[in-house]
Amino acid sequence: MAKKDKITVQGAEILFFSQKKEDYISLTDMAKYKNAEIPAHVISHWLSTKYTVEFMGIWETLNNPDFNLTEFREVRNASGGSFTLSPKQWIERTNAIGIVSSAGKYGGTYAHKDIAFEFASWLSAEFKYLLIREFQRLKEEEQATIGWSAKRELAKINYHIHTSAISRNLVPKELSKEQINFIYASEADVLNMALFGTTAKEWRDQNPDLKGNMRDYATINELICLSNMENINAVLINDKVPQSERLRKLNAIAIQQMSVLQEVETQKILK
Questions:
Q1: Which pLDDT band holds residue 169 (cuts at 50, 70, 90)?
Q2: Which of 53, 111, 118, 265 matches a 20 to 30 Å C-alpha distance to 199?
Q3: Maximum Cα–Cα distance across the chain
């Protein structure tokens, strides 16, 4: 039998378990509300009534394709009065699935929640109300936990998608020797090439419908990196480092800094 959980109703612990996405609640624990010493007698008394047999028959007919209708009719005709029926007898005679019984320390009689709620009505209207309310509360908590886990897993998936996109698109590519050795007319284009891999003119030619320049469409991380690179480039110019060498260094710095900035951003997603 599946792992059992429990709810508490009017101080009584009631076990339940899920099987094939259906919940089964302990009638034995519920019956202790009426008779803590002999709960099996309470269940048998309820199960033997004509109304209960009719209800059980309807439930099994709708949910159990292997329900033995012939045996059910015999049980129904005999029900009421001094007739007695145990859960084991009901299961063996009709091949019922709405009620299950097991032996052992944590055994007992369990019923599908539809049937368990019906049993609760027979015990007490107040008991039924409190049972349903507590059961629904627990299920809502389970769904909230499942929802959180799903979001967590989705965040992990998005993290891998995001980091994959970073490696393909967001982290600058290493420039070729031809690009490094080309003489650029302005220092702005040196930085543009190091970070974006294109000059201002090339960007405008590729995006004729966009207003402004490529820096107007840069991300926050790119602007942070660009600001750092401007300071570094100023130091390199002061040290009389050739443009091609500065471009090579700046491109390497851009790749390293953007990788770090994007890693920080993706870590925020998982928090």
A1: very low
A2: 265
A3: 109
